[in-house]
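Researcher: Watch the backbone:
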Amino acid sequence: MTIFKQIKNTDLFDKDLKKLLKRFRSLEDDLEVFIDIQLKLFHKIKQDNGGIKQITGLKKEYPRVYKATKFACKSLKGKGGKSGLRLIYAYFEKEDIIEFIEMYYKGDQENEDSDRIKEYLSSLFPDPQ
């Protein structure tokens, strides 16, 4: 059974993942667990454990963009959900689609790339001229 109709990655997310996989070898498996548990709980069962927050102030109402701050990574032993990895994604609720936008390690980067998020949203819904 699939949890969401579709899960996609942006090209820049794929680059982030490839770079992080060199340091955190369990990341692909960790991402699958995150989808199966955290995303399912938050979006399908509507149970909030405080690990996912909506990013506000983006001037676009749809899709909603979220930041996951609780992301367990087996490669970071002893850290559990407070691994320091952050995941930014868009959720198209009507279409039931998740699209991953950015992933980063807080030791390398303090916050999400707001320009990347804005460019992503603009590419979906270009402003009329």
Q: What stands out?
A: The CA atoms of residues 40 and 46 lie 8 Å apart. The domain at 6-124 is CATH 3.30.2310.20 (YaeB-like fold). The two ends are 43 Å apart (CA to CA). Strands lie at 6-9, 52-54, 64-68, 85-92, 97-105.
